């Protein structure tokens, strides 16, 4: 199945009914070409994992770069370049997928094992339960389910190792792919520039603050000014 959700932990689209295993990109292409298929709102984009090709309106993380949230945990594990920063923020946002499926399986325990129904019934059961899930999310203010550690990041195990499917029936032109990659690179570079500027401003503020304190202390000794007044004035 292919599912899309929002940040309110609600399903906005589900494609259920493909038999066997299929590449993510093939499922996405099928969803986009159906009459009542997946629609991307104007000016919006979907976050997708490395199972999908990076393309217009579907933003995938950089390959071969740290992505798992746990990779950035602990002291000294902060992003070291623009691609790692992009992947960290991408993973933080896309983590909503792990949460919604954790809630879904906790709510409908039947999906923790193969249901004893015909395949068509199983596909319809997914859609029905997704509708019930959305209703409860909208109508029940206390609709919270714990997400087990087994569900958390379960789909990220092979994010970096997966092979990208370059067969894209909707956008096969190289310029389309190049545009999407340039778009992603631009976002990553802007994020990194903002972080560098923030760190520089923090450093300059600290430098100017201590320089000003040092100069004011010299004034205190040279001109007999009230030190408490000057320091309090600087603090304000």
TrEMBL record:
GO terms for cellular component: nucleus. This is DDE Tnp4 domain-containing protein. It comes from the Eukaryota. It comes from Cuscuta europaea. Residues 1-134 form the DDE Tnp4 domain. It is found in: Nucleus. GO terms for molecular function: hydrolase activity; metal ion binding; nuclease activity. The keyword Metal-binding applies. Its cofactor is a divalent metal cation. Belongs to the HARBI1 family. The lineage of its organism: Eukaryota, Viridiplantae, Streptophyta, Embryophyta, Tracheophyta. Residues 143-162 are annotated as: Disordered.
């Amino acid at each position: 199945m292919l599912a899309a959700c929002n940040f309110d932990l609600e399903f906005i689209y589900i494609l259920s009914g493909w038999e066997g295993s299929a590449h993510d990109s093939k499922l996405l292409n099928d969803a986009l070409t159906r009459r009542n298929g997946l629609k991307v709102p104007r000016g919006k984009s979907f976050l997708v994992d490395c199972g999908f090709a990076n393309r217009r309106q579907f933003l995938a993380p950089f390959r071969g770069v740290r992505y798992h949230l746990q990779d950035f945990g602990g002291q000294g594990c902060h992003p070291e370049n623009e691609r790692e920063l992009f992947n960290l923020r991408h993973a933080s946002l896309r983590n909503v997928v792990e949460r919604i499926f954790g809630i879904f399986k906790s709510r409908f325990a039947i999906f923790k094992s193969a249901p004893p129904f015909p395949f068509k019934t199983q596909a319809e059961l997914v859609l029905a339960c997704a509708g019930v899930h959305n209703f409860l999310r909208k109508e029940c203010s206390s609709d919270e389910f714990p997400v087990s550690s087994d569900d958390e990041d379960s789909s990220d195990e092979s994010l970096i190792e997966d092979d990208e499917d370059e067969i894209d029936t909707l956008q096969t032109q190289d310029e389309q792919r190049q545009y999407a990659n340039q778009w992603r690179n631009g976002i990553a570079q802007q994020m990194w520039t903002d972080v560098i500027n923030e760190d520089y401003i923090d450093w300059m503020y600290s430098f100017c603050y201590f320089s000003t304190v040092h100069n004011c202390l010299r004034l205190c000794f040279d001109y007999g000014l009230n030190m408490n007044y000057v320091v309090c004035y600087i603090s304000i």
